[in-house]
Amino acid sequence: RCMNKKNEEIVKKRDLIVKKICLVNNEETEAKACAILDRFLVEKHKNKTPERAFILSLIYKINIPADIETIHRLVEEQYGHVSPTTVYYTLQLLTEAKLVRRIELIENGPAFFEKTLDTIPHGYTVCRHCGTIKLFPLENIRKDASMHAASGFHIDDVSLIIRGSCRSCARKMAKEKSSLKKTNTAKTTKKQTKTN
Predict the structure, then answer these.
(1) Which of 50, 57, 161, 186 is 20 to 30 A away from residue 151, measured at CA?
(2) How do 122-127 and 133-137 pair as beta strands?
(3) pTM (2 decimals)?
(4) Cβ of 81: how many Cβ atoms within 10 Å?
(5) Residues 40-68: tens digit of each pLDDT
(6) Which residues pair with 164 in a beta bridge?
(7) What is the pLDDT of residues 78-125, one digit of tens each?
């Protein structure tokens, strides 16, 4: 897929994030996810492979949504060679098993994946300029969801994505705007001086 300059910058930022990702062990949730995957694979007449198990385990250790490239790089670093196709099809399988959720955080960007079991309802802030993604809790959503469920509404998914400019990019843009204004003012003053 053709990538524009903005997406290339986002990929570079994701590369830095891969280096900084800290993996957190939650053995109880991971064991629950593995048991669900085992049952799902039996129902679908599919094999349980070490790669599938490792990718599931890895996703349940990551505390932020990650795109396929990020997940693939982490798998390669910690497991060894696994093809990007294997990672892609495993993520599709885990999504079908409802162990992983696919979300579109960046407009016209890559899909992101995150664990679904034992997570606190949360939303996302996404910087349109640098691609920074932060999670924030949705404290009242459980109560609101319970009200809808009581009325017979079946909730499949709840998602809140707030897109805008992170603090760093907003400052950078303000400086650029201020600098541009000063340059334009200086040019206007210079023109006026020449005409007088």
Answers:
(1) 161
(2) antiparallel
(3) 0.72
(4) 7
(5) 999 999 999 999 999 999 999 987 889 99
(6) 127
(7) 999 999 999 999 999 999 999 999 998 888 888 999 999 888 788 899
